[in-house]
Design brief:
The complex is a heterodimer of chains A (364) and B (350). Chain A is built from 16 helices and 11 strands. In chain A, strands 9-1-10-11 form a 4-stranded mixed β-sheet, with helices on one face. Chain A has a 4-stranded parallel β-sheet with strand order 2-3-4-5. In chain A, strand 2, helix 5 and strand 3 form a beta-alpha-beta unit. Chain A is globular and about 60 Å long. Chain A starts with a helix and ends with a strand. Chain B has a single domain, classed as TIM Barrel (Alpha-Beta Barrel). Helix content of chain B is 44%, strand content 13%. Chain B contains 14 helices and 10 strands. A 4-stranded parallel β-sheet of chain B has the order 5-6-7-8. A 3-stranded parallel β-sheet of chain B has the order 9-1-10, with helices on one face. A 3-stranded parallel β-sheet of chain B has the order 2-3-4, covered by helices on one side. In chain B, strand 2, helix 4 and strand 3 form a beta-alpha-beta unit. Chain B starts with a helix and ends in a 9-residue tail after the last strand. The chains are: A alpha/beta (364), B alpha/beta (350).
Chain lengths: 364, 350
Amino acid sequence: MDDMIKRAGLGGILDKIKANERLTLDDGAALYRSNDILALGYLANLVRERKNGNNAYFIYNQHINYSNICTNLCKFCAFGKDASSPQAYEMTIDDIRQKVRERLDEPITEIHMVGGIHPDLPFSYYLEALAAIKEVRPEVHIQAFTCVEIAHLAGIAKLSVVEALKELMVAGLGSIPGGGAEVFSPRIRAKTCEKKLSGEGWIEVAKTAHRLGLQSNATMLYGHIETIEERLEHLDMLRRAQDETGGFMTFIPLAFHPKNTELADVAKSSGIEDLRNIAVARCFLDNFPHIKAYWVMIGIKLAQVALSFGADDIDGTVKEEIITRMAGGESEQSQARQQLVRLIREAGRVPVERDTLFNVIKTY
Amino acid sequence: MNRLDQKIIDGARISRDEALTLAQSFDLHRLGFLANAVRQRLHPEPRVTYVIDRNINYTDICVSACKFCAFFKAPEDAAGSVLSFAELGQKIEETLALGGTQILLQGGLHPDKPLAFYEEMLAFIKGHGIHVHGFSPPEINHFAAISGLAVREVLIRLQRAGLDSIPGGGAEILCDRVRQEISPRKCGTDAWLAVMEEAHNLGMRTTATMMFGHVETLAERIEHLARIRDLQDRTGGFTAFIPWPFQPDNTALAHLAKTSAFTYLTMLAVSRIFLDNVDNIQASWVTQGPKIAQLSLFFGANDFGSTMIEENVVAAAGVHFRLSEEEIRHLVTEAGFTPCQRVMDYILVG
């Protein structure tokens, strides 16, 4: 296999990965530019197996999108709606309580809750939402509010990010999802999501959360108008932040779904492109414990294969995730636990059900 | 590098046991690397071919009642139908207008239509000047039974009427234990292979398929590959091999789990490595979708199959992937290959 990597012109990177040395931005660019997806997969798999052995993780979770009303209206998003749109909705605290109650008979360990940047909901709404979930399901871990939402909440509460996070933690916030990162580059943000929190602002919120003991995830939305250099700049900012705090658990490359967005003329990402982003991230982000293949975005078939291309996590049993569905995501909307276990086994991996913080619930 | 890998890289033939070892290895990179090496030896040009054609099913009425099929209607079912020549003509004209070069013509095993009916159908289609890739071995066998003629005679008559080549359908798994269980009324392994051998001897090219992931064992899949390889050694008549996983929805075997992408890529790679005498291996985008089909180009496939202007059989099993010629070309280009339109015998168009 080493011969094949050398023939693909990636021998130097192979040596570094074997020696557990950090890859440079140039190394990252060489990986992104390589057409040899098997070589990329092999390299990423070396890192993946060193960090996570043969384990493939999944979680039993529930998604709640409390509102799609959003003032940012990013061009790549088919979910966010202006408050005046007939498709706009917002859940009451009772609606949220009801959502949680509906599935009390299932062994859900995590509630994943995100929404738009809502212009009017008061800070107390978010605190009450967290408290309501905990009231119905006290043991559940709540992973909620992207860094973008956190910055917005601090703004409306007229609190510092630290103070806002502290109040949210008291109300029940357990960790922070990785959304809203998109691509950090100011050029990309100016063109696709000019109203959104800046890349540096996003990193700052994440680091602040980490210092308070809240772990978080990170994402990158690829496959729209970003360059390879901009992807690497994004990964590099994450790697440096992680060196400082160590608070990131998982990196999740997100494939852009063009349908129903303002960028609908962009081609949908291909399977090779999806695997390439997973593999490069696994090689480059040497200080991230986990890389997730989010099956809702790339389909369950490719997510299974991605377990050999750098990913060690395929998210969970997701139901009612509507952000991707609004953008024409064609994956089935839920995967039974039994199905995930079978797919992981068929890929020659060990299925491990985890909680949000990667404590093992059960090895199958 | 281990001995088996070296043997494959050196272009030597592998045994059934060695194929079984590979199929059980769970080492996807290694399989991809080996299959890709074989593919590059056989196809040094960085090219991926595809054909523009339409699957026309002349009837869904079928006496075979295979358990894996969601398409057929039993003869007593009033919902079954036979396509009129007018409908057939319209479908052919639409195909030609889209740059199509052939019709894939297959249907159920109709209880009463005489051989002359199929001869007339062929003559009608040939009147439009298009290649007819038609009648899989179970159909040919059925025509022989209905007409009381030998398979060879049936083939000669169909060839005279305009049949150009024969699709590799109805092979399922070429192992009689499996056939008894899932399709007891369909022709057996030897009969399937005998039709192909006669066709090759008459100068007709054919393809071969394998439908896996139902009641067969891994060893039976390898046996299937071995039967194809043995016949190919004698005739050289197969142009391509097309493995695809059984799609269980709406069939009598709906309780079976769907084959995963990992297993598909594994079988694709093993097929490429084992069938050293079959030139082309097709990806099955119609069952796997665009992402996995694109990835299959690194697991032994050098052909994207057909644009399938129309497809009914897999769709009946609840799988609805669609790809235009433009999308196929985009996927192939993005994977680093040049997309090229071809005809049935893999000669390039234009």
